[in-house]
Amino acid sequence: MSRGGTSIPDEEWERFLRESEAGSPGAPEEPSARARMVTQRLQEEPGRPEAWRTYAPARRRRGKGWYVFGLVVAVVLLIAVFASPGRIPGLFDGDTPDATPLAAESQRPDGPPAPGGSDQEPTQDEPFRGSPAARWSDGAAGIHLPKARATGWMSEAEVARALERTRDFLVSSALDPAVRGGEKPEKAIALINPHQSDVRAYLEKAFTAPDRENDPLLLFSRFRSAEVRPVGDAVRTRGRISFREGEKGAVRVSADVTYVYPVRRAAGNDDEVARVIVRRETVVSWDDPEKIITEPGTFSIVSYKVDTTNAGCDVHDGYLHPAFRSDRTGADTDGGQSVDPYDRSGPIQDRERVPGDRRCDTATRS
Q1: Cα–Cα distance between 350 and 365 in angstroms, integer?
Q2: Which residue has the higher pLDDT, 327 or 277?
Q3: End-to-end CA distance of the chain
Q4: CA distance readout (Å), 81 to 67, 75, 133
Q5: Which are the contacts of 108, defined by CB distance < 8 A and separation ≥ 6?
Q6: From start to end of 82-171, where are the E strands?
Q7: What confidence tier does 277 reach under pLDDT thresholds 50, 70, 90?
Q8: Is residue 47 in some structural domain?
Q9: Does any domain span residue 33?
Q10: pLDDT in tens, 174-226
């Protein structure tokens, strides 16, 4: 018999029919109509279809181990930053070892600031570069005010107002651009009790015939505008104000603030920047008007001290006189003490000299 042009012996064909009827395990099955349809469709459709109700396995993520490793490293770095931000130089601003702004100084620090970056010179664009003041706040923002509470003759609201007006005095006396330029600090003087005869005499002499005892720099910051110009608008500050009950129920307010003034020469094209550092401790008394003669909104001055760095040695003409590198000589510091002008861990120390002694203390940094 011929099948498709091929001759098959009769014996083989009969054996095939018997095995098919008997269901031989090796005999091929005829596909069902549905199977034939599916097979035909698969042969006609291009591409390989996905099986029904199956999922394509997600593409393998390469480098998963490196991802976990990087995450661990990032966490460790964050812990290191918050635990000791000054130990990772350049993390925040490139050249500056640590530009993280400091929190307000609510109490006296335990020691001086770290010396990191002190070898970097200030520039016109970065006048506080290389000094602790790089992390200080500008102006009044660097003078911490405590939370007010009822004290002495004042209510809580009145104490809050007294603290704010005390800070206003500091701003008017040391931060006002006109006063820094040499003008008389009229706004600051207006906050002082005019009935204080000794203070009134001091102020009169300080602005007409200044000397060691009547030096306006004890309370005010002033430069000769013909000598120097400020670099930028900012003055960096660090300090705090505190209060307690004083005599006769008065509210005694104490201020301890350090100011950093970057300046340049007024004449010439010299780009050199010098810094003047002034620290003042001022104590005032907001007196009960029923017990002390005073005027509303004014305070009485109790005491004042000042410590200046790079402001002129033993010069008492009412102005700060910064020295630039080319102005300094070895004789200027011969015999003086070494002091850190940024160390606020202790009170201002009196370093009395014999009148006429021109030897200056040596600042360990500017």
Answers
A1: 20
A2: 277
A3: 116
A4: 21, 10, 20
A5: 256, 344, 345, 346
A6: 137-138, 143-144
A7: very high
A8: no
A9: no
A10: 999 999 999 999 999 999 999 999 999 999 999 999 999 999 999 999 999 99
Q: What angle do CA 306, 307, 312 make, to 5 degrees?
A: 110
Amino acid in position 96: T
Q: Which domain holds residue 173?
A: 117-363
Distance from C-alpha of 96 to C-alpha of 79, rounded to nearest angstrom: 20
- What pTM value is reported for the model? 0.72
Total structural domains in the chain?
1
Give the integer Cα–Cα distance in Å for 55 and 60: 14
CB 261 within 8 A of CB 221: yes
User: What is the DSSP track for 204-252?
Assistant: HHHTTS--SSS-GGGT---B-TTTEEESSS--EEEEEEEEEE-GGG-EE
- Is 138 strand, coil or helix? strand
- Choose among 185, 187, 184, 214: nearest CA to 199: 214
SS3 199: helix
Q: Give the closest residue to 358 by CA, choosing from 330, 325, 339, 320.
A: 330
Dig out the tokens for 171 from the structure.
Answer: 């701003």
**Residue 331: strand, helix, or coil:** helix
CB 136 within 8 A of CB 237: yes
